Amino acid sequence: MTARAAHRPVGTVTRGTTNPNRLRRMDRWIATAHGAELRRADDPVAVDLGYGAAPWTAVELLARLRTVAPRARVVGVEIEPARVAAAKPYERDGLVFRHGGFEIPLPRRPLLIRAANVLRQYDESEVAAVWERLCARLADGGLLVEGTCDEIGRRHVWVALGPEGPRTVTFATRLGSLERPSDLAERLPKALIHRNVPGEPVHAFLRDFDRAWAAAAPYASYGARQRWIRSVRDLAGDWPVTDGPGRWRQGEVTVAWRALAPAD
C-alpha cells in the first residue's frame, strides 16, 4: 500500500449543499446539552464534519459554541480538497479547515463531532459502522451529533451519541411551518428513515405524536407553540421524553434512543 493510499480520507464526497443558518436548531441544542462539557475541557475542540461547498456552518458553529464556552475551537473537516481550499480564507482564531473524512484527522480527540446531512447518501447498513468509527474518535465525555435537515433548517431530526453509542433522538421544527408532527419523518436520519413503517418504533412514535397533536387542536387558538407543548406533554405519558418545557418551547422534543431504535 502506498503512503498516499494509507492516508486517503475515509468516506465519499457529499452533494455539498449548504445555506447560512441551516443548522441553527442543532447548534443551539448542542450549546445547551453539551455546553457544560465544553466549558470544563482544557481544550474544547469541535469538528464540523462534511461542512459542504461553503464554510458557513463551521463559522456559525464556532460563534454559537463560544456563547457558552468562550475557549471552544472548531475544525471544519471536508473530504473534497477543493472545498477545503475555498474555506481557508475564512480561517480565524479558533477556526481552521482540514482535508479528511470519518477518520477525523486531528492530533487529539475532539469533544464534539457534528455530522449534519452527511450520511443521507449512505446505505442504512453502513450507518452503524460509521457511528462506531466516529464515536471511537471522541474524547472522554464527548458527543457525536448526526442528523438531517431541510435546505433552510425549518425541520431537523438528529441522534446524539456518546462513546458508548446512541443516546437520544431530537425532533426540531419551526412550528409555524408544521401541519402535523409526522411531517418531520422526511428528515429522519438514515438509521431511521427507512424504518417509518408499521411495526417499527419510530412509526408508532410519530403516529402517537400526530394523535396528541390532533387532540391538542383547541390549544391552537393560543398559537402553535402552546399546541406543541401540550402535545409533547401528553406524549410524555407513553414515551421516554428526556427534556422539558424549556426545550419544547423551542419547537423541540428529545426522546431516548432505546424507544425508537430499529426493531431488528
What does this structure look like?
There is one protein chain. This protein has about 260 residues and is α/β, with parallel strands linked by helices. It has a single domain (about 5-255), classed as Rossmann fold. The chain is about 35% helix and about 20% strand. Strands 3-2-1-4-5-6-7-8 form an 8-stranded mixed β-sheet. Helix 2 (about 25-40) packs across helix 3 (about 55-65) and helix 7 (about 200-215) crosses helix 8 (about 225-235). Mean pLDDT is about 95; it is low at about 1-5. It comes from Streptomyces pseudovenezuelae. This is Methylase.
Key features of this structure:
single chain, 264 residues, alpha/beta, Rossmann fold, 8-stranded mixed sheet, 10 helices, globular, disordered N terminus
Topology:
Blueprint: H1 3-6, H2 24-40, E1 45-49, H3 56-66, E2 73-78, H4 81-87, E3 95-99, E4 112-116, H5 124-136, E5 143-149, E6 155-162, E7 165-173, H6 190-193, H7 201-215, H8 224-235, H9 245-248, E8 252-256, H10 257-260
Parallel strand pairs: 1-2, 1-4, 2-3, 4-5
Antiparallel strand pairs: 5-6, 6-7, 7-8
